[in-house]
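Ticket 4471: requesting a sanity check on a complex prediction with zinc ion. Repro inputs:
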Amino acid sequence: MKAIRASFLDFVDDPFFAEERAAVRYVADGALVVDGDRIADFGAWPDIAARHRALQLAHFPDRLVLPGFVDTHVHYPQTEMIAAYGERLLEWLERYTFPTELRFRDRVHADRIADRFCDLLLASGTTTAQVFTTTFPQSVDALFEATSRRGMCVVAGLTGIDRPGSAPPEYLDTADGFYRDSKALIARWHGRERCRYAVTPRFALGSTREQLARCGQLLAEHPDVWVNTHMSENEAEIAQVAALFPEARDYLNVYERAGIVGPKFTAGHAVHLDDDAWRRMAAAGASVSFCPASNLFLGSGLFALEKAKRAAAPVPVGLGSDVGAGNSFCLLRVLDDAYKVAALRGQKLSAMKALFLATLGGARALHLDREIGSFEPGKFADFVVLDPRATPVMAQRADSPPPAGDAAQGSGHAHVDHAAFGLVALGDDRAVTATYVAGRQVYPRPTA
Ligand code: GUN
Ligand code: ZN
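Returned C-alpha cells:
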C-alpha cells in the first residue's frame, strides 16, 4: 500500500462551536495510508510504521497536508473571464458573463474549458466543488466527463434561466425544456462515479415561477439530489426580486414557495439576510456558501459569518471561490478575504476556523462529509500537500518566531496556529506542492 508521511492537519469537530483544541487534529510527524482510492489508516508515523509493513512511502518533510479543499460555489464557464473589470453584479452579468457563457453552446469549447477548469482547481488544492454550468445541457456533460477523468467528486447541474429580459434571448431556456433536460442529466450522471446532481436555478431573478415550480417537481421526483443557487447577493438584485415576486416575504421565500429549501440546498452569497431568514435557513437545515472574494470584487457586501454560526440556530457554511466573480480559484486566497471581511465586521476568524471552512466545513455544508473532508479511514484519499515556505515572504515569516500572544488563536498548538495563519494570510496556489484525488497524484501530473 501507498503512504504519505508529513505533518497533517484536519478537523474532528466544528471549531466554531467545539473548543478549538478539541476540534483540531494535528499530527506533527504523521502518515496517511492509501488503499486504492480510500484512506486505509491515519496516525502518528511510528504507529503507522509498526502497523504496516512494506509501505510505498512518499515523504514530504516540511510540508503540511490538509484534506483537499472543498469549493462550494464556482462557475466553470466563467474560467476565461476571471478578473473582469469594473462592474457590479447585474451589469457584470450582462456585460461579461452571458456573452462568455453563450460560447458553451459549442461542445468542443465546453470540453476545452472544463478541462482547464478542473486543472486549475487541482493546482489550487481544490479536490471537490459544487459547480454552476450554463443553460446548455452539453455543458453539463462536458463538466462531468472532465471531473470523472480525474476521479474528482463534483456536484453540478444544468443552470436554468428562463425569464425574458434577464439574459440574452439566445441564452434562455424554458421551464419545460429545463425540466426535460434536467431529468435526462439526472438519469445520466447522478450517482455515477463521484458525480452528484444539483437542480440549479441560477437565481430568483432569472427564473419564472414556472421554472421554479419545475425545480420543486424535480426535487419531489428525485429527493436525493442537491439544489444549488444564488441568494440575496446584491441590493439591486434583491429589489428586483421583491418587485417580481410580490407574494414572497423575502428572497428566501421565493425558493421556499417553490419547495426547494431543505438540507441539500445551498444558497450562494446570502449577504443581505435578516434574522428571520437566517432562522428559516437553520430550521430547514439549508446551507450557505460564503464567497468573500466575489462579494468584495463585485462590491456586494460583507457576509455575516457570525450570524450563520449562531449556536442557537446554526446554518452550515462552506466556502466558495465564485470564480469568475471571485478573482482566485485558490481557497487560501479566498480565506484571506474571509479574514478581512470578518475584521470589517469586528470579528476574528482564526486560522483553524478558516481552514475548517475550506475542508470539513464545506464537506458538511454539501452533505459529503461521509466521503470527504477529513483523514478518517474509509473516506476518499483526497488531500493537498502545502508548503508553508512557498514564497520569500512566507519563508521569512515561517522562520520567525511566532509573535508573543499568538496562543490567542487557541488550537493549543501555538506554532501550528502560526504556520496555518501564514497559509491563510499569505498563501496562494504557489503553496500547493501536490494534490491527490482518490489516492492518485493529479497535480503536478506525474511524468511517465
Ligand atoms: N447571480 C446570478 N448569476 C450569477 C453569477 O454568475 N455570479 C454571481 N456572483 N452571481 C450571480
Ligand atoms: Zn456564483
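Notes from triage: The longest strand covers residues 24-35. Leaving this open until the requester confirms.
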